[in-house]
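Co-fold these.
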Amino acid sequence: MAAMGSIERKRVVIIGGGFAGINAALGLAHLPLDITLIDRKNHHTFQPLLYQVALAVLSPAEIAQPIRSIFRDHRNIEVLMDEATGFDLPQQRVLLKTGSQIEYDYLIVATGSTHSYFGRDDWAFLAPGLKNLEDAVEIRRRVLLAFELAERQMQENGTYPPLKFVIIGGGPTGVELAGAISDIARLYMARDFRHINPSTAEVLILEGSPSILAAYPPDLQQKAVKQLADIGVKIRTGSHVTEIQPGYVMVGDERIDCTVTLWAAGVQASPLGKLLGVPLDRRGCVIVDQFLNPPDHPEIFICGDLAHVEENGHQVPGVAQPAMQMGTFAAKRISRLVAREMGSDGTGLTEPFHYFDKGDMATIGRKAAVANIKWPFHGRWSGFPAWIVWLVIHVFFLIGFRNRLAVFRQWAWTYLTFRDGARLITGSQELPGWNLKYGAEESSSPEPSTATKP
Amino acid sequence: MAAMGSIERKRVVIIGGGFAGINAALGLAHLPLDITLIDRKNHHTFQPLLYQVALAVLSPAEIAQPIRSIFRDHRNIEVLMDEATGFDLPQQRVLLKTGSQIEYDYLIVATGSTHSYFGRDDWAFLAPGLKNLEDAVEIRRRVLLAFELAERQMQENGTYPPLKFVIIGGGPTGVELAGAISDIARLYMARDFRHINPSTAEVLILEGSPSILAAYPPDLQQKAVKQLADIGVKIRTGSHVTEIQPGYVMVGDERIDCTVTLWAAGVQASPLGKLLGVPLDRRGCVIVDQFLNPPDHPEIFICGDLAHVEENGHQVPGVAQPAMQMGTFAAKRISRLVAREMGSDGTGLTEPFHYFDKGDMATIGRKAAVANIKWPFHGRWSGFPAWIVWLVIHVFFLIGFRNRLAVFRQWAWTYLTFRDGARLITGSQELPGWNLKYGAEESSSPEPSTATKP
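Predicted complex below.
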């Protein structure tokens, strides 16, 4: 693209194509700047609906959008599929995995967070978390396979180990996963299996703190507990998992058997924060000021889950809304700084970031939710009305018109017909902790039992 | 399920949930038989549309259906997710990977075919073929990643190795893959990339025999060649690939560079045929009589790609139509045999299998096809009318009403808007033969080059 006039265009580099990065880029899109958005993946993922992919209601393509296509019509935005591996802050350069470097005048780092297994990285395989599409497909595989293997054992031996899905962590993700698994077992799977009774599957949330949904007001927490109980989800609070093994977890000395174990407990900041060489908090988030700058770097903005921002003494939570708002704020701030450099008076430069909290919501199964709404009115909703609100908002915020249509249709179809979404088992056909293996290379057991048709 | 009356119900075991197996089960569904359908996967895949998943037009869930859900309302059909590993023919038992055995009165083996790399199994990783959903997602990953890596190199070095997609094999699958890749490059990718010109990507079919689409009449072959040329696909016939390496293939002494190499050449029968201990043809297909029985086993039926059936001196081809017809035939034949055992006169028992050839068709890109129609009228169509016929037939034969709707909508959307289907790159971010790697564990090159924004 040719330079406009004789003034050299400022270069803005955005690392991360999540909510913060996408919103920052969109906020800068109409300005005479050269913007580069870097992401390891070729797609933006709408994380609030990842659990619906994990539980086979939606397909990966319905909640993801290639980043290039989001910015197709913004000629000043370059999309680079690469991974940032370091920084040269004095030279204002980002180092990339492919070995090259990219220069910036302004830098936005929005690489989010990842799972934290509290130093037990060996748990990652045994209890996968839910951060990206690959995770979602893996969780889908394990949950569906658990039912298949149980059916298989029942046909063969007339008995099977009870199906038990343990979700470690009772935050919004844990609650949504638990509700969705329970729904699948009770409403959908029950119609497909003949020998096992999927609706007897147990879904258990293990939460370390005294309550699930710690960020919600106590009355909504209680409503969530009740709604979860209504669909058969059990909750144990104050339960710290001390060990995860194939087929069981330990809470202190107690062994809890589980068919599938999922991780919705700890998150930690993206390791890129550490490479900036600026102060971090305990979870690795970059401590930034009210302009989202780390100390002494007014040209660097940290947005989304990677940022530790305090407001009224509380840390702004690591969810979609503040990430979007931070991205938009950084874009606005950069546009003002550039305008000042260009000779404008820099009006509005002193306005700090303010998190406009519209509320929180989490679904509980297919027709209930809790919503702590703060805008455009104050209200605490639960049950079906909250679910409807959740649905409308999530369809609205999905990126890509095609996705909005597809998700809405898919939900309507599933809701009205109780019919299959996308219950495909792809990939390996093994489940950690099961002695039954399908498609694996191991030889089968030496003494075959004889199963006849029941 | 309780036995009906005092007569013991006959047990039919079907191995394989492809077109043949599904149609056999549906053909037996309303009879007082106990049917067990065994498949390694939990889903039936509509193979004729796999290439559209591979080329990111459709999503996996749109062309696959969980087998359990197909037979949800047929209480006499059991679905077993397991793998057959052998047979005990005298005892009439199938051995399963999990170690158990299952008894049958009638057995239908319909495990299809797999890629044949002519003894060079090391080629499988370098040139993936297209037989299942995992293959399709892998091919999608490689094709999309090739464009991303080229863009990345162009941004960094101002040059990139020409994009060249080589498809080994010029049968229907090879032709459809080639047409779809060319379409993607010319029509869709061209709008998303800034630095490279995706429409200059070369698509080359290497065919060993003197002509592509060997099963089609010469005039349609020539039309296909012309239509492929119109969308930029090159064809080299009489070209036997003698070596595949990362980044290139050898045809005799000639080296042909390629970014992505795909395999659409050889197929071989499922290895299960060999385990039956009955005569096989050169490709491992079971040679059966006109009742689809191998010699001396009137209780065993071989259906679909695994069967070597001759009709008028020609082998019935290994495609969807004959597979469906064989499945239906086996079901009918079994129902008559059972009726005779039950005391009926066995009317119609002598009627042999006859392949009712309705014709063949293959698409060439997004708006052309060749169709050699033999029923309900004779006709050789090509171009857009053939494409419309192809579309209607494929939507009609898709299993599952939801899939039919979804595929139709997806096609309409893509066709009318030129907008994204499901262009997601998931999984590893490496491409065999490229020195650029993303997300891999290797350290990046020691001497970083400096790239500034172009």
